[in-house]
Design goal:
It is built from three helices and two strands. By secondary structure, the protein is mostly helical. It has one domain.
């Protein structure tokens, strides 16, 4: 694995929070990230938590951002 790979990843800070309607200062709930990762593309997902938008459509970019967020939470 390359050293310092995260600096070259081209991450847009706060993009997942904006897409989900959750303020950047708040943490994104893990249950919401797991629900996004479990859903198929094009499917509507209901937010199991009280923060952010109630429902949203899962896109490829949303799934990638959720997967990256789960990876970075584990570091």
């Amino acid at each position: 694995m390359a050293k310092r790979w995260i600096q070259k990843a081209g991450i847009k800070k706060g993009a997942l929070s904006r897409q989900l309607g959750i303020p950047e200062k708040d943490d994104i709930p893990v249950t919401l990230l797991k629900a996004i990762m479990k859903a198929s593309i094009g499917e509507k997902v209901k937010n199991p938590t009280k923060s952010g938008k109630r429902t949203f459509v899962v896109t490829v970019k949303l799934k990638r951002r959720a997967r990256l967020a789960m990876t970075l939470k584990g570091l």
